[in-house]
Amino acid sequence: MDASAGRQGPTTKQRYSIFALAKNALSYHEGWQQAWRSPEPKKAYDVIIVGGGGHGLTTAYYLAKLHGVRNVAVLEKGWIGGGNTGRNTTIIRSGYLWDESIKLYEHALKLWEGMSQELNFNVMFSQRGVINLAHSEHEWREMRRRYEAIRLNGVDIALVLPDEIKKLVPIINIDPTIRYPVKGGILQQRGGTARHDAVAWGYARAADALGVDIIQNCEVTGFERAPEGQIIGVQTTRGFIASNKVGCVPAGHSGVLAEMAGFMLPIQARPLQALVSEPIKPVIDKVVMSNAVHMYISQSDKGELVLGAGTDAYSSYAQRGSPNHPEHLMAATVELYPITSRLRMLRQWGGIVDTCPDASPIISKTPIPGLYFNCGWGTGGFKATPGSGHVFADLIAHDRPNALAAPFSLDRFRTGYLVDEHGAAGVAH
Amino acid sequence: MQLIPCPWCGPRDDAEFHYGAEAHVARPAVPSERSDAEWEAYLYLRRNTKGPFAERWLHTNGCRRWFNVIRDTYTHEIFASYKPGEPMPDIDQLTAKKDA
After folding, report:
1. What is the pTM of this model?
2. CATH number for position B83
3. Counted domains in chain B
4. Contact predicate A64/A203, CB 8 Å
5. A323 touches chain B (CB under 8 A)
6. What is the C-alpha separation between B75 and A111, in angstroms, rounded?
7. Which residues of B touch chain A, with CB atoms under 8 Å apart?
8. How far apart are CA A187 and CA A160, in angstroms?
9. Residue A5 pLDDT exceeds 50
């Protein structure tokens, strides 16, 4: 009998609550269960998800929850949430320009709003409001156009002038004589931040409870296909695993996996950097983003200022990035927020983002039957995590994209129907 | 930051350059006779290699000329730099030489 047979089906999970906390305190917190199993891979699955980041884990969760596909494996070459899920600046918003994008990101934002309750896991989703700044007359005009586009889609958004921004963010410098003065901005009050690790852990725990096998330290090294082309499984560092449906959610490594599968994607891998400061008292309770100067800022609950920089100008898989980007970021930060001039930075890191020519994602079938790709989220995939998994699970289960995912198919690069979000995404997603 | 060897100006800081992605992508001959799929391949589909890779650079703040570089996209090691029109060196041979 298959050794894993006894582990099939949903496992009962300890619920997290104030009562569970009190109860476990009595036994010195030694009674907590593991949040998810670490099973040996089975020989075959109904669906294999390659990539155990937020998007991959949500895909597996929604496959099990909404589509009744519980015989699912998530294969992760490192540890779950160790890639871009744990490396981003956790900004969540849905204020894009085109209807297709607004609908997709708003779908995600609505799922964020119920996530902690649904997962019984506190993802620390904080709707503190996200402000995008305009620093030139042209950008301000473009932003007002975007504001109208967002409103037409029924999504909350407000125009804010420099004086109002100063009231919301007292540390900001709105002096009109600085090199990149604040001309105005848009505020999405429902936007905010979340704890990125908790998102990965929460979905992993919930997917595991529905019977999904999360297999870490298992790298995919090749795709196996039937003579007629259909995918029949993947070669991994832990042996061959069979499945007729494979969904790849590899973020920065999507080009590597596509090449392994024998086709090309319109994607370039670039490092994107972020840094955090030493912890200080609360000084900013909004997320503020500036596309023009490539800086975005928020303050974590620990008190660290979380700062995001731009992407490197060239392809790279080294998860560190060039030193000139943090330098540029700090110059912009000090000009816009002069109180940071003597603040020390604690940590700097980079993640490899999969940038697409139109700054929109690819959620699509591929030239290979049974192989699906969800990638190209570039510099801003975190905000879409639940929505991305939701529509990708639907695509895998039904072998056709739903209305939300259809505009993001790979064939848009052939038809020319691009969803150009360079203005709304910029680098500061 | 890394030094990019411009074949005309010598090694310079990468901030002086613009990146041009994959090298040796030829524009299709007789454009009007090409299919949508061929245009897609030319306009959008690019190799995204992890490892030694032939790529284009433009020395924007220097001689303002394009050239090609063989660079490892994981280690950032540079194996060769050559002028446009010159044939692509054998990447396997170059990397083997460095390893030896």
Report:
1. 0.93
2. 3.30.2270.10
3. 1
4. no
5. yes
6. 39
7. 1-2, 14-15, 17-19, 21, 36-37, 39-41, 43-50, 53, 55, 73-76
8. 7
9. no
